[in-house]
Design a protein that fits this description.
Shape: globular
Bound molecules: magnesium ion
CATH class: Alpha Beta
Number of helices: 12
CATH architecture: 3-Layer(aba) Sandwich
Largest sheet: 6 strands, parallel
Order of helices and strands: EHHHHHHHEHEEEHEHEHEH
């Protein structure tokens, strides 16, 4: 890499199974269905839909709509999810919190998950809501029930991460790195919306994703050691 032609490194992180060690919608389903008589079957069905989506067997729109149809989350379920997620941040992200706080201006979260629960989790790492690209729930008028999600958001559809990153109009000469565990994370590199894709395998190792990655990292330390920009390794 020619440092003289690259003035900034921009890090774009996936959320589910990357920033946190869980799939948030699966956990929300677990919480919302805790007392349902057919709980085990519903949770298993949702996990299967998530896995099919990750493997590219069904489109993201279908995956999201089908998972959402299985659950009727309340504000209490949502609050329980946020608490769970705050305790589920990947250990290597927690160990490098300092890096996130110092470089927050050049860090984005790009997720097919929801701003509603991502923003409070990443806020502790200094990441501003404007740097969280994700879907948004729709709430009942009294704010006690999640009624669905904003289907006009590009991230609710196939290729959403690509559109969301392109809409940022990031500086042309910046080195842009997408870091995540899924094929939708690789896809942004495939179309050239970023310069590099790092497969993050600390939580989940997906062979098809690893095969197309420019680099494979098992921790944030790996990501930083690989990223030779001086600003990225400052302490
Ligand atoms: Mg993920």
């Amino acid at each position: 890499m020619n440092n003289s032609g690259v003035d900034t490194t921009i890090f774009l992180f996936d959320f589910d199974s990357t920033f946190v060690t869980v799939e948030a919608l699966d956990e929300l389903a677990n919480i919302a269905l805790a007392n349902a008589p057919d709980r085990a079957q519903s949770v298993a069905a949702i996990a299967e839909i998530t896995a099919d989506g990750m493997a590219g067997l069904i489109g993201f729109d279908e995956s999201l709509a089908r998972r959402f149809a299985q659950i009727s989350p309340s504000k209490a379920h949502f609050d329980a999810l946020v608490t769970l997620l705050k305790h589920s941040v990947s250990p290597s992200f927690v160990a490098n919190k300092d890096f996130f706080q110092k470089n927050a201006e050049t860090i984005y979260i790009v997720s097919g998950g929801f701003k509603d629960f991502i923003v409070p989790v990443v806020a502790e790492f200094g990441i501003d809501p404007s740097h969280v690209l994700a879907n948004e729930f729709t709430w009942s008028s009294e704010g006690q029930t999640i009624t669905g999600y904003d289907t006009a958001n590009p991230l609710a559809h196939n290729g959403g991460k690509i559109k969301a990153i392109q809409a940022l109009n990031l500086p042309k000469n910046a080195h842009k790195i997408m870091i995540g565990d899924g094929m939708t994370d690789y896809a942004v590199r495939g179309v050239g919306a970023v310069n590099e894709f790092i497969a993050y395998t600390d939580t989940v190792k997906r062979k098809p994703v690893i095969e197309v990655a420019d680099f494979v990292a098992t921790s944030i330390d790996d990501v930083l050691a690989h990223t030779i920009q001086p600003r990225a390794i400052q302490h």
